Amino acid sequence: MRTYLVGGAVRDKLLGRPLVDHDHVVVGATPEAMLAEGYRPVGKDFPVFLHPDTGEEYALARTERKSGRGYHGFVFATDPTVTLEQDLARRDLTINAIAEDERGALVDPYGGTRDLEARVLRHVSPAFVEDPVRLLRVARFAARFAPLGFTVAEETMALMRRMVAEGEVDHLVPERVWQETRRALGEAQPSAFLRVLRESGALAVLFPEVDALYGVPQRAEHHPEIDTGRHIELVLDMAARIAPGDDRVGFSALTHDLGKALTPADELPRHIGHEGRGVKPLRALAARLKVPTEHAALAEAVCRGHLNAHRAFELRPATVLKLLASLDALRRPERLEVFLAACEADARGRTGHEDAPYPQAAYLRRAREAAAAVTAAPFVAEGLAGPAVGAALERARTAAIAAIPR
Q1: Which of the 8 DSSP states describes residue 95?
Q2: Whole-angstrom Cα distance, residue 193 to residue 146?
Q3: Percent of the chain with pLDDT strictly greater than 90
Q4: How many domains does the chain have?
Q5: What is the pLDDT of residues 223-267, one digit of tens each?
Q6: Which of 174, 214, 221, 404 has the greatest number of beta carbons closer than 10 A?
């Protein structure tokens, strides 16, 4: 019975990155032997155990065999004769197929350290094509490691295109697509996630509403990058810079301009009314992927309201109050922060505007504070009741917003 540190912990240690998870594989053991050592079983599909002291995961070395379509179409086998090399062979990328023994020596049968040095994301074996989730994982790792210069190996991209062409990606369950997507949106460079999916052909299958934005022109005086798909990439990366790790902001950035794909051809490159047009495709995307309700609601608020945020200084006080109310921002100021981060990412996610100020955010925060400071109590004390209280409250809040400097 020998144990090895495997996967992300070894990879990140070699890259000098902080270690988050410590996963181990155990060779030459049986479930009974693990239980006898005090390990606690947690695995459902195959034997995984928690260390009695550290709580870290220890999985028995296993092989897998394709038995059907999609993510769940696998049969796993574990027994004491499965070798470490066999276990590592079933992993997705060579950089995730490196092990470290108890003495700190590396076991690297598939060239993971070489690919770390070359900054390449490369599949371990042709069995890569059997699991469509691996395509999403490659795109997510691209989003994580693109700032370090990582790219996808040509032969791996060829396999990913094959997975799309053969319909394997069609069998991805919505929950897993969303799980990988939200993690990618929280990475350092989410634009790489889109680019890898698009290059493989998977973006058109999984996110047709986003794929449709590529090639749609915008007015160059407002968007020097012109292409709407490229704009979305810039906004995603700016969102990661402004609100690192917040996938609510990331999802709002991803979907805020979906309406531009629906602009009539004779109106291009202008996009009048794209905010309203974007709601229907956004709702369709969110429903299909079973996006959490709060993510979808905030994304819709950004889709509808991002232009109003940009022209906040031009809005009437009553319109500012209406914008804040649409976000429920007086009761839940954290929703305003997500909204403002996504709107700022949109404004700065344009070629040449990356470091531009966004004073609208500070103004809308001041407006919220001024409106929230006005309560109904004085009006109730005056003897008002029912709708009259609401009307008086709205007038007073509008006046409070009008009084703050712009």
Answers
A1: G
A2: 9
A3: 84
A4: 3
A5: 999 999 999 999 999 999 999 999 999 999 999 999 999 999 999
A6: 214
